[in-house]
Design a protein that fits this description.
It contains eleven helices and eight strands. It is α/β, with parallel strands linked by helices. It has two domains: 179 residues, 3-Layer(aba) Sandwich (Rossmann fold), CATH 3.40.50.720; 86 residues, N-(1-d-carboxylethyl)-l-norvaline Dehydrogenase, domain 2. It has an eight-stranded mixed β-sheet with strand order 3-2-1-4-5-6-7-8, sandwiched between helices. The longest helix is centred in the first third of the chain and has 20 residues. The radius of gyration is 19 Å and the shape is globular. 45% of the residues are buried. The protein binds acetoacetyl-coenzyme A (CAA). Acetoacetyl-coenzyme A binds next to α2 and α9.
Length: 287
């Protein structure tokens, strides 16, 4: 089945990027948030991304308009009734995701493929929110931020995911220009299993006074050729998101390497969530 119509739940950092790449690959997309203003803000972010691409001469104005015309911001969950593909990209909270999946299960057509962009939560645990007959069509399709730039997707099959679903997700990822890597349904899958201990260790080095935040990040950027240092990357992902992922990994793997560092807990408690709030390990805009 070719996917023509997608429903993306969540218009934040990941959801708006996923909607953008789907629309750029010719799919029609309903971009959903329960709050209409947030859905529209997600579409506006896409418009701004596309405008930058036009300004750089990488996209012509007609293509920009065509991509935007394929994206509708909506606060109506009922729009999922038209979807060939339902993508869930809401905050990394198991109860929130499960409640949303139960609602989507009631609305979406039987043909729909269901994918979650969870970065750490068990696919089988999320699938349990769906009726048993729906579970073969459910899997993890995990994107990386910024979605239009990062050419990777993790495909995570749950124990019920069938071959037709995995094949459809592979074909879609290829259409989006993404390389697929396959992970077992284990906490954090592949990339966050590798990344979170790095971020946590950088935070602990900061706590212990090993070096300044600037020098820790310069160490990774200049000494390891990483495009961003770990503290800047955590700010970019969102410290609340990083904390949520570390908590899942720590609880599910029971390994101290994943314990959220105190400084991370404190920043999140203070509402300093990184780039999106203007402050995290660094202040934004960076001077
Ligand atoms: N949305 C769309 N495009 C963006 C963008 C955004 N938010 N940010 C940058 N870009 C584009 C720019 O338009 C530019 O495109 P062109 O080369 O075609 O002009 C390109 O990316 C490079 O941007 P810049 O020159 O402005 O900046 P840069 O060279 O410093 O690159 C970066 C920016 C791509 C973000 C780079 O710093 C990088 O790769 N950082 C690491 C990102 C990373 O590790 N992501 C994974 C995070 S983990 C995750 O997402 C999963 C999870 O579960 C937590």
């Amino acid at each position: 089945m070719r996917i023509e119509q997608a429903f993306v739940a969540g218009a934040g950092l990941m959801g708006h990027g996923i909607a953008q790449v789907l629309a750029a690959a010719g799919r029609r997309v309903d971009l959903y948030e329960p709050d209409r203003g947030r859905a529209s803000a997600g579409r506006e972010r896409i418009a701004a991304n596309l405008e930058r691409a036009v300004a750089k001469g990488r996209l012509d104005a007609a293509a920009r308009t065509a991509i935007l015309d394929r994206i509708a911001a909506t606060d109506r969950l009922a729009a999922a009734a038209e979807a060939d593909l339902v993508v869930e990209a809401v905050f990394e909270d198991e109860a929130l995701k499960r409640a949303l999946w139960a609602d989507l299960d009631a609305v979406a057509p039987g043909r729909a493929i269901f994918t979650t962009n969870t970065s750490s939560i068990s696919i089988d645990r999320l699938a349990a929110a769906l009726a048993p007959a729906r579970r073969p069509a459910f899997c993890g399709m995990h994107f990386f931020s910024p979605v239009p730039v990062m050419p990777l997707v993790e495909l995570i099959r749950g124990s019920a995911t069938d071959d037709a679903t995995a094949d459809a997700v592979r074909a879609l990822a290829a259409d989006l220009g993404k390389q697929v890597i396959v992970s077992a349904d284990r906490p954090g899958f592949i990339v966050n299993r590798i990344l979170m201990p790095l971020l946590a260790e950088a935070m602990r080095a900061l706590e212990e006074g090993v070096a300044t935040a600037e020098d820790i990040d310069a160490g990774a950027r200049v000494g390891l050729n990483h495009p961003m240092g770990p503290l800047g990357l955590a700010d970019f992902i969102g410290l609340d998101v990083v904390l949520g992922i570390m908590r899942v990994l720590h609880a599910d793997l029971g390994d101290e390497r994943f314990r959220p560092p105190r400084v991370l807990e404190e920043l999140v408690a203070a509402g300093k969530l990184g780039q999106k709030t203007g402050a995290g390990f660094f202040a934004y805009p960076r001077s």
